From TrEMBL:
It comes from the Bacteria. This is Toxin-antitoxin system HicB family antitoxin. Keywords: Plasmid. One of its GO terms (biological process) is regulation of DNA-templated transcription. Residues 21-43 are annotated as: Disordered.
């Protein structure tokens, strides 16, 4: 029983490692013409958020089919337009 469990654990760990070593997948359609969200110049910044706030924002973004960065950008645009 123990050797079966160990074998399953090793198999799962190897599968996870292989998945992690693969290049990240492109989300959505590739923008080869520069007409999508990357057509607008952007700057990178770092935010420090409470873990629960980040999880909630990431979940909301996933439900909308957008990135966390897009969700944060839209929230800033909405806030600053008031």
């Amino acid at each position: 029983m123990t050797s079966e469990l160990s074998q399953q654990t090793v198999t799962l760990n190897i599968a996870n490692l292989e998945r992690l070593l693969q290049p990240p997948q492109q989300r959505g359609k590739r923008d080869t013409e520069g007409t999508g969200r990357m057509a607008i110049p952007r700057e990178q910044t770092t935010l420090r958020l409470r873990p629960e706030l980040k999880r909630a924002a990431a979940a909301a973004a996933a439900l909308q089919g957008i990135t966390l960065g897009d969700l944060i950008e839209q929230a800033l645009v909405d806030y600053l337009s008031k």
